[in-house]
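Exam review. A common question shows you a sequence with its structure tokens and asks you to describe the fold in words. Practice with the pair below. Do the first one on your own.
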Amino acid sequence: MASRDDIKFLSNPTIGQRRDKYCRFKRFGIKYIDYKDPDFLLQFVNEQGKLLPRRITGNSLKYQRKVATAVKRARHLAMLPYVTDQLK
């Protein structure tokens, strides 16, 4: 009988397995979200420059609000664009 290592899959067998979502701010103990750090804030923005929702990022409500405020402040100071074609 062939072992699992010998079998070649046509598609990735890990596709469809759910990963646990977690709030990275609670897990790593981040208290303050700096609006002057655009590289960090790009993790919460998609290619068009829109904010990613909580169900995708896994943030808690408290920190999602803080992220939204930080992104809006960074946009106001022209550190992040309001709209773009391909940001990442």
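Now try the second one, then compare your answer with the model answer below.
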Amino acid sequence: MNTVVVGLQWGDEGKGKIIDYLCKDKDVIVRFQGGNNAGHTVVVNGKKFVFHLIPSGILHSGKICVIGKGVVIDPQILIEEIEYLKKEGVTVTPDNLRLSPYSHVIMPYHRVMDACREKQRIQKIGTTKRGIGPCYVDRVARCGIRMGDLINENRFSLKLKDNLKEKNPLFENVYGTKGFNYEEILNQYQEFAKILAPYVCDLVDIYYKEKDKRFLFEGAQGTFLDIDFGTYPFVTSSSTISSGATLGSGLSFVGVDEVLGISKAYTTRVGEGPFPTELNDDTGKYFQNKGNEFGATTGRPRRCGWLDLVLLRRAKILNNVKKIILTKLDILDELEGIKVCVDYKIDGKSIEQFPYDLTGVQPVYEVFAGWKENIANIRDYKQLPSAAKRYIEKIEDYLECEVAYVSVGQMRDAIIDKRK
């Protein structure tokens, strides 16, 4: 069984913990897109691990973790992550972590360009300024530097010179900042190359021979940050939906058996852009504080709002989701009443089609009674309060899709397998 796990909202749905939970039954865990703008958090025996590039499956022995070609890699961040895990007693070697030579490399000029572009925009996007977007731009413009180039000294040198020849005048004459020194970048990245070279290998041939293994594809961000189907331009720079899994990994020959979609029991998003169910009141602050809604990568506070079933239905269709994983249900424990968006209106009129632009959309709510009970220690679905089960059943009925798992806390085992 090969499984794709995707976020159904604007990211931060709790994918890291779910990947960690699911990968015990998998052999190979593949990250297929995004960069170190992602942050996946897993709590094991009270200790929190935050991942930015490496799949959280690395915490399990006997698994192979892959950073696929759809991911853009900041080598310094990756090396820091490897060293951090090793200090925590986690085994990270070329045997259990492998990098695609086709993955593009984030360079220092990408990070500066990211910040310069955001500063000059009239309409701010809310970029993390990690250089993700400019790196993807260079990939499409065919001037990018890939991991296979980085570990080849002559090829890297030539490509770096070529890029600085174009980009330094741009920084100096357009953005009004100084350019980059070729020797400094060359020396720094050659050191990175020495460390990362053993991890780089051609994944296609290796995994074609092992195509009968069980694969788990891990997405970053969420459906509505997808470069095409998200709330453009307030999106990320890669395809976050399930169809990007095989393209971003190069493993189309293994096939996908199921797509699991992850949604919080409420909604959050980071950065700019429309958000129909956003709450700018005490309830929104409650979600933010109770749910610890601050970015694992940037520390930025997340905007919070009620669960949006119209949004989830769209995400379910886009990703061909067969089962839902509902996270952070425990955050609703203290609420008297819980609202769920079941329809959209524009100018006071219900709309039949999902809107091209969510700006100005008015949510229509259905109200549910809260359960006012701590559910963090429950592991059997039957033991959930009846009000909590009604909430879950509403989600299933509206989406015409089973909620297979329910997460009720940060801890690794705080998951209810609803099918048991």
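Model answer, second protein: The domain at 263-417 is CATH 3.90.170.10 (Adenylosuccinate Synthetase; Chain A, domain 3). The radius of gyration is 22 Å. Full marks require stating both points clearly.
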